[in-house]
């Protein structure tokens, strides 16, 4: 198979600007519902240059432009936290509808009518959940999250609700185009050389790929089985749970969310955020599966540390090779070729190129 993307797509500033429409027009993973359980819990992200906040306001989880209507300060400045929806500049506060309800020294302003206050509302965005996963859509698309995720919705719902404890957040700034990083995760062809002492030892194998209109997945057999004596204790600790698999599974939720799990006992959610044509922020969130018995949690500390170290080492190896690819892609006119093991790369590129050329 020939690659669908020529080298310039990995470094061109003009193409990078066009790509922002992909992120604006599709559902974008934002975070986890368990991060928004308390009044005033919030998350922030920048999506295609747009600062966005998601906040729990008196039990309602809403998504707004993260910009004050008064003098345009950023409202919530941290990536996450718990703080009222109040501007740090002049103290304007907002309710769950984004309407300013607290204006210091209000008599010094004109007498705002109800309509005028509504006109000063924060711009709101569509927000929806798939189990524990929170998504935001900046467009006025009529396609629901359920429609967007399609056949994967129910499985991802079960998978996300099988998680319990977030054990690690790993953020890496990688000097490579975001598509290079996504494509790297979609194939195992590189595993033998890049992950010799890490992922290769799991023995993930096979070409059992599944494709939808936007997304894809890989079901892989592993050398280590859930029924092996070495895993029986771990399996007992994490049973029962909603999501069981016999091996390894990896999802791409287009354009930039990657989800993987080994045996359904540990999970990784990776969000790939473009910063420039040549730089990307890689965000990894690692979870353990649900443990019913509180007493059993004391026995997983060693397993927890192993999972954290394994993921960090694998992603460090990926960072190094992706940066080498970025250096190389600037010096070639070849489009490259893809093997059957890289079929998911081909599908991702095909979806991407159709959208970028609209």
From TrEMBL:
It comes from Mucilaginibacter boryungensis. It holds the Pfam family Ring_hydroxyl_A. Its cofactor is Fe cation. The lineage of its organism: Bacteria, Pseudomonadati, Bacteroidota, Sphingobacteriia, Sphingobacteriales. It comes from the Bacteria. GO terms for molecular function: dioxygenase activity. Keywords: 2Fe-2S, Dioxygenase, Iron, Iron-sulfur, Metal-binding, Oxidoreductase. This is Aromatic ring-hydroxylating dioxygenase subunit alpha. The keyword Oxidoreductase applies. Residues 27-136 form the Rieske domain. The keyword Membrane does not apply.
């Amino acid at each position: 198979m020939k690659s669908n993307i020529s080298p310039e797509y990995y470094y061109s500033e003009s193409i990078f600007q066009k790509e922002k429409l992909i992120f604006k027009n599709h559902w974008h993973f934002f975070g986890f519902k368990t991060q928004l359980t308390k009044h005033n819990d919030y998350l922030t992200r920048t999506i295609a240059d747009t600062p966005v906040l998601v906040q729990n306001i008196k039990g309602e989880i809403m998504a707004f432009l993260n910009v004050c209507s008064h003098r345009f300060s950023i409202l919530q400045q941290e990536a996450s936290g718990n703080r009222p929806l109040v501007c740090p500049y002049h103290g304007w506060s907002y309710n769950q509808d984004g309407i300013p309800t607290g204006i210091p020294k209000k008599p010094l302003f004109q007498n705002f009518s109800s309509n005028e206050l509504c006109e000063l509302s924060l711009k709101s965005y569509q927000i929806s959940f798939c189990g524990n996963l929170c998504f935001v859509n900046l467009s006025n698309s009529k396609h629901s999250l359920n429609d967007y995720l399609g056949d994967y919705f129910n499985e991802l719902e079960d998978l996300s609700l099988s998680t319990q404890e977030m054990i690690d957040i790993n953020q890496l700034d990688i000097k490579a185009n975001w598509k290079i990083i996504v494509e790297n995760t979609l194939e195992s062809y590189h595993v033998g050389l890049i992950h010799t002492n890490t992922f290769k030892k799991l023995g993930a194998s096979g070409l059992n790929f599944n494709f939808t209109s936007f997304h894809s997945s890989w079901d892989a057999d592993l050398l280590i089985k859930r029924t092996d004596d070495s895993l029986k204790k771990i399996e007992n600790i994490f049973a029962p749970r909603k999501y069981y698999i016999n091996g390894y599974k990896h999802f791409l939720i287009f354009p930039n969310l990657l989800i993987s799990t080994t045996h359904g006992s540990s999970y990784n959610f990776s969000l790939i955020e473009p910063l420039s044509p040549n730089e990307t922020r890689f965000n990894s969130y690692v979870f353990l599966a649900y443990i019913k018995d509180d007493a059993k949690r004391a026995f997983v500390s060693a397993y927890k540390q192993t999972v954290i170290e394994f993921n960090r080492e694998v992603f460090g190896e990926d960072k190094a090779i992706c940066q080498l690819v970025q250096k190389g892609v600037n010096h070639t006119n070849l489009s490259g070729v893809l093997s059957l093991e890289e079929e998911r790369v081909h599908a991702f590129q095909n979806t991407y190129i159709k959208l970028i050329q609209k």
